[in-house]
Amino acid sequence: MANSTLVILDLKDNSIGPYGAQALSEALKTNSTLTTLDLQSNWIRSNEAQALSEALKINSTLTTLGLESNSIGPNGARALSEALKTNSTLATLNLIKNEIGPNGAQALSEALKTNSTLTTLNLIKNSIGPNGAPALSEALKTNSTLTTLDLGGNSIKPNGAQALSEALKINSTLTTLSLENNSIGPNGAQALSEALKTNSTLTTLNLIKNAIGPNGAPALSEALKTNSTLTTLYLWGNSIGPNGAQALSEALKTNSTLITLGVEFYSLFCSSLKASSADTDSRRTFLFLLAAAWFASPAYRISKSNYIPLGTQQSFQQPVAQSHAYNHQGYDQSQPLQP
């Protein structure tokens, strides 16, 4: 007798391989209750992805599919893309570490131009590169449903950031964009900053470990002076230095929406200890400057009434500048600093 109650099936790290994936695909063609299927790390390759795609063309209940660390490659991505063109229920697709490359990104982009249900797409560590990013950017110009896109660890570099910035000037649905560890540099930061001046939907931007430096931070600061929707900005691991912090502090004096700002307090403080006495004083001063600007900012004044002290039963993301540590999927592992 076929099951009619199971809604979540977690099979990650089970080495189900080709035969297991094929069997599951056949089951999905007739199953009418399962909504979440996680097949992370199961030796699923392009052929198995093809089988799953055939199931997705028929299945009408699955909303979340996890295929992290399965090496489906560009051919597997193409197969899934064909399914996305007709599937009307899948909302979340996790393809972390699947070696889809720029060609796979191109295929997914074509699907995004017509798909009207997918809201979350995770493509961390897929070697998409600066050639694959423009394809996704073109899709974002017309897609009207995707709200979260994670491109962490894809080496899109400045050119890729430039392409995405052009999309952000047009797109009106994306709320979360993660570009962690993509080497966009100051030029990429400049491009994204221009988009932030006009974009009215993006609320979270993750730019951790992108070599933005002290030259890229001022550009982002200028955007923060006019942007009225961004609430979370992660800049940890970008060596923005005292000059970058000075620029950010000036933006915080007028910005009224930013609630979370992730910067490398600890690393900057440690570097100050290795500097000369005079330089140490200037580096330490910038910490107080940034903190003072935050507590004087409109955003802090607006939201500080919601503050709940750490250690209480109810948790709350406190609106103060924070130092963050992330795992490969971008999950925040830190605690906010006390005011």
The main pleated sheet reads as:
11 strands, parallel
Helix content: 40-55%
Shape: elongated
Mean pLDDT: 84
How do the helices and strands line up, and which of them pair or pack?
Layout: E1 8-10, H1 17-28, E2 36-38, H2 46-56, E3 64-66, H3 73-84, E4 92-94, H4 101-112, E5 120-122, H5 129-140, E6 148-150, H6 157-168, E7 176-178, H7 185-196, E8 204-206, H8 213-226, E9 232-234, H9 241-252, E10 260-262, H10 265-273, H11 277-295, H12 298-303, E11 321-322
Parallel strand pairs: 1-2, 2-3, 3-4, 4-5, 5-6, 6-7, 7-8, 8-9, 9-10, 10-11
What does this structure look like?
It is a single chain. The chain is of the alpha/beta class. Helices cover 42% and strands 9% of the residues. The chain is built from twelve helices and eleven strands. It has an eleven-stranded parallel β-sheet with strand order 1-2-3-4-5-6-7-8-9-10-11. Strand 6 (148-150), helix 6 (157-168) and strand 7 (176-178) form a beta-alpha-beta unit. Helix 7 (185-196) packs parallel to helix 8 and helix 8 (213-226) packs parallel to helix 9 (241-252).
